[in-house]
Each structure stands twice: as C-alpha cells, then as structure tokens.
Amino acid sequence: MKGKEWYQADDVAQEYDAKRFSDGGRLIDRREKTAVLEALGPVEDKDVLEIACGTGRFTVMLAERGANIVGLDISSAMMAQGRQKAKSAGVSELVEFMRGDAARLPFPDDHFDAVFAMRFFHLADTPAKFLAEMCRVSKDQVFFDTFNRYSTRSVYTWLLPMGSRLYSRSEVEGLLSGAGLELIGDAHDFVLPFGFYREIPNEVAAPIRGLDTKLRGSGVGEKLASVSYWNARVK
Q: Which InterPro entries match (predicted)?
C-alpha cells in the first residue's frame, strides 16, 4: 500500500489530526462525519467495522451513537490515540481497535451489519481485493469514499508524500460490480481540493466553502467535485 511506512510513523500519528482537521480542515472533518452518519443511518446495537480507522474520529463518533464497532488499522500509534479518545468519551466498552491487513480481514463471512472506509482507497494498491474483503464480511452495507480522477485533486496529487490514487465513476462502478455490490447512493463534493482548505484559516475557509458548495450544486461543479461518497449493498 502506498506510503505504508510514512503512515505508521509515530511523529505522523502525533500530528495527523492537528494538521488535517484544524483551521479550514474542520470543514472537511464535519462534511466527512455527516457523510458517514447519513450513509449508515441509526447504528445503535449494530455491529460495524471501520477499515483504516486511524485516530478513531469516526470510530468513537459511532460508538457514542450506540454502535458496537471494530476499528482496523496498520498503525499502532494511530490506534493508541483512538483508544484514548474512546476512553475520554466513555465508550471504550463499545470499541475494539485491531491491527490488521484490510486485504485479509480476520473475520468470518457476513460478520458485520455495515463496513466502511474513509480516506483509504486513495492509498490502495489493490482496490478490488480490498473491496471484495469488505463485501465478504458485511451482511448488508459497504460505504467508502474516493478522490476523483477528473477533478482539481489531480492538480496537486503528485505533491503528496505517499501519492494518491484517483478514480473515475466507471472505475468505481466496475469495482463494485466485481465485488458483488450494488450501488444505492452516491454524493460528490469539494470542487476545491482538501489541501487548499487545510492551508487557510477557518474564518477564511467558511465563506469560500459556501461558494464551493454553490458551484458544486451546478451541473459543471458536480462533475469537477474532488471527492465522492459511495453507498452500496451486498447483492
């Protein structure tokens, strides 16, 4: 997987949330959490798996809403922060963090009600294999996001320390079909890429985000959206 060593470094884990979700990055965090909540719906008493859970920002959020959730990641340093978040939120009993390989998930077939991954597929070197595994362990739902090939994301992706895989809609649809999944909903957002928002103060980012949202609502803007959220069901 791209950037595997970079991602697991202790210093990256310590600075990950602060670099990506402070200032204008808060808008990204808010939108991503909304996307997860809208896709998964009520999660109380559901068994949920999060792939590439990182520092647990989604894991803990869903546990607070009553989900029994497993967070899987390759970075022990990232998950250590997630465990601390769960403890601070008082939901440790609902969360299990596991170090594991998303290409060989250590769970039986149809084990979870829902399986999701955020900020994962742009790093995946074998996306078909990962998606097939997510489908295998899910009884019903698979949700994930991608960065889009024909978007502003392509302008700066070569600058990222780990590279970034970009997807067209037809490629995603092919991956879903090959994994035995049926697309039931999709949403597209952020004409301006994430990297732009992370570099500007929150008070500047908010009005720019408003303009971005208006542009994205147009036919042209949606086609230029840099991020897509894909909601699928097991066939």
A: Methyltransf_11, SAM-dependent_MTases_sf
Task: Give the predicted TM-score (pTM) of the model.
Answer: 0.90
> Going edge to edge, which strands form the sheet with 112-117?
95-99, 68-73, 47-51, 112-117, 138-147, 227-234, 181-189
**Three-state secondary structure of 174-222:** HHHHHHCEEEEEEEEECCCCHHHHHCCCHHHHHHHHHHHHHHHCCHHHH
Determine phi and psi for 141, rounding to 5 degrees.
-120, 140
For residue 18, with 0-12 CB atoms within 10 Å meaning exposed, 13-18 middle and 19 or more buried, which class applies?
exposed
Q: Count how many Cα atoms sit within 13 Å of the Cα of residue 212 in the half-sphere of its side chain.
A: 23
Q: Can you say how many angstroms the Cα of residue 107 is from the centroid of all Cα atoms in its chain?
A: 20
The pLDDT averaged over each successive group of 10 residues in the chain (235 residues) is 50 60 83 97 98 96 98 93 96 97 96 97 93 98 95 67 82 98 96 86 91 85 89 97
Question: What is the DSSP pairing of strand 68-73 with strand 112-117?
Answer: unpaired
Candidates 27, 69, 2; CA nearest to 203 is 27
**CATH fold group of domain 4-232:** Rossmann fold (3.40.50)
| C-alpha 146 chain-centroid distance | 8
Cβ(11)–Cβ(78) below 8 Å: no
Q: For 187, phi and psi rounded to 5 degrees?
A: -140, 150
